[in-house]
Design a protein that fits this description.
The complex is a heterodimer of chains A (228) and B (300). Chain A is built from eleven helices and no strands. Chain A is mainly alpha-helical and 228 residues long. The termini of chain A are far apart. Chain B contains seven helices and 17 strands. Classes of the chains: A mainly alpha (228), B alpha+beta (300). At the A-B interface, helix 6 and helix 7 of A face strand 5, helix 2 and helix 5 of B.
């Protein structure tokens, strides 16, 4: 049990001392996860809205597909992306393997169905007459779309944070596509896996605590959206 | 001038049930038109078609109104998740109307809400009745040519009902706004409106106090107009083709300052009877009779 308490002390030490190796992993984690989740949100919110608001042929099947993709195994996504961007793969010429961009593609694939599925659910659970009210007050096209999203912002925020949490803490894609290269593609989660493998549990726990701290900061920065 | 000219309108949500079938209906401009009818009679569907939110399966609706000139207030109005002021501003800003503050003050005043008390309140700080008043103010501020209100008097207290009625009458008087309103509350409806219709099984009938009677032997439905029924405090002699019932007067409503309508409670139903003067007091036992020849059969 001693290594647990030691781990938390080490976490504080890492943050206070500004350990360059740990901060390189923290920087890589925050950068790649934030960019991936922003791209996923930009693409996923409109699709989630369409799936939740409109009725069209094949809607139920699409919902089923996106709901199933919520359980995508991160290692499987890592494997598929690896196959796509490896030098012999169809995207090999772009040299994305063992880069943060490569990890970003995998994380986008992980976050996208979470955003779509949860924002579709948020749209469906919006007040029954919301669409009717907005149109009745004169909202059309873009005004209507943006106002609707704003009205269901609490549900969308949950979708965003769930997706962010999923990719911030994933290890499969980062390990397979990024390769855990020190100073380059090492993220906090791959660093935890490495330290644990080496038997340095305290450092692993310290990095885990740092990851949790990052998640707390992200939630705090978006708390204004929760305000009623 | 007609607000809507409707011919052979049919609408169904599925292939099986036709929820609206209106052969011929002309609704006039600048009137406060009140529709009454039981739940499921098709009022909300009809209102959504008139507002442009649903398209009929077939038939013709002629109007010179554009979608933006009509404002619809649903049965359960939904306020935007922001303050009362921002709720009222929303439609005005979208329509790029300039004198926003003046319009908001006026619209809130019409529904009896004080600016000082309500303007900065959030949507969750309002009661059900206050929400309805804010939702109506939201639409009044837009000053549309037609307002369609779906059961505004439902689930609200008498004070709110009064303010809603007054706001409708003021808008009709001040801006010549036409209103189409549905209600189950006949007293509120007659106090507010000046033109009355009834709905049953997707059919529309002129007159607000129609009696719908189901035949005892078959499932046929008949309409009996209140003016075709005789009412008396003394027993009425039974004749051929004439049915006589005994009941008591549960309500008396004065409509358009000239006609009295009595609601007579029989054992199993209420019957509306029209009378020229008010000579029977509420609570009195009365006899009513109607001639079977005056039954209007309608195909549902």
């Amino acid at each position: 049990m001693e290594f647990l308490t030691q781990g938390f002390f080490d976490a504080v030490k890492i943050l206070v001392s500004g350990d360059p190796e740990a901060f390189s992993a923290i920087y890589a984690t925050i950068t790649v996860s934030s960019v991936s989740v922003l791209f996923s949100a930009a693409a996923g919110f409109p699709i989630g809205f369409i799936l939740g608001y409109y009725n069209f042929f094949g809607k139920k099947t699409l919902r089923l597909v996106f709901d199933t993709l919520l359980s995508l195994p991160t290692v499987f996504v890592g494997l598929v992306v690896y196959a796509l961007i490896t030098s012999r793969g169809p995207l090999g010429e772009f040299n994305l393997l063992f880069t943060l961009k490569g990890i970003g593609i995998g994380q986008f694939i992980l976050a996208f169905p979470v955003i779509v599925s949860l924002s579709a659910a948020a749209t469906e659970s919006g007040e029954e007459n919301l669409g009717l009210t907005l149109k009745s007050l004169g909202a059309r096209k873009l005004d209507f779309f943006l106002s609707y999203l704003w009205e269901i912002r609490h549900g969308l925020l949950t979708a965003f944070l769930t997706a962010y949490g999923r990719i911030l803490t994933e290890v499969g894609v980062s390990m397979m596509v990024g390769g855990n290269i020190k100073w380059k593609t090492r993220t906090v989660t791959t660093a935890i896996a490495l330290e644990t493998g080496k038997g340095y549990f305290e450092t692993g726990i310290a990095l885990g605590a740092v990851l949790l701290f990052i998640a707390l900061l992200v939630n705090l920065s978006l708390v204004f959206l929760r305000k009623r | 001038m007609n607000l809507f000219q409707i011919r052979n309108l049919l609408f169904s949500y599925s292939d099986k049930n036709c929820v609206l079938k209106i052969k011929e209906l002309d609704l006039r401009k600048e009137e406060i038109i009140v529709f009454s009818g039981p739940n499921g009679s098709g009022k909300t569907t009809f209102f959504k078609i008139l507002s442009g939110f649903l398209k009929p399966d077939s038939g013709e609706i002629k109007t010179d109104l554009r979608f933006s000139e009509i404002s619809y207030l649903p049965q359960e109005p939904c306020l935007l998740k922001r303050s009362v002021k921002k709720n009222l501003e929303y439609g005005l800003k979208i329509r790029k109307i300039l004198n926003i503050d003046e319009r908001i003050d006026h619209a809130l005043g019409m529904t009896g809400l004080s600016k000082e008390k309500y303007l900065n309140r959030k949507w969750f700080e309002l009661s059900g009745g206050e929400k309805k008043r804010v939702a109506l103010s939201q639409r009044l501020a837009l000053r549309p040519l037609l307002m369609i209100l779906d059961e505004p008097s439902e689930s609200v207290d008498s004070e709110t009902r009064f303010y809603l009625s007054e706001a409708v009458k003021q808008a009709s008087f001040e801006w010549k706004t036409s209103f189409i309103i549905s209600t189950h509350d006949k007293i509120w409806g007659t106090q507010t409106g000046n033109s009355f219709y009834s709905m049953l099984n997707g059919n529309v009938f002129e007159g607000g106090f129609l009696n719908f009677i189901k035949s005892e032997n078959s499932n046929e439905l008949f309409v009996i107009r209140p003016e075709k029924i005789t009412i008396s405090e003394t027993p009425i002699k039974e004749r051929d083709f004439c049915l006589v019932f005994k009941g008591f007067v549960s309500a008396c409503i004065l409509v358009c300052k000239k006609e009295y309508y009595y609601c007579v409670d029989l054992n199993d139903k209420k019957i509306w009877v029209k009378s020229a003067g008010k000579n029977i007091s509420t609570g009195s036992f009365v006899y009513i009779s109607y001639d079977k020849n005056n039954f209007e059969k309608f195909e549902s």
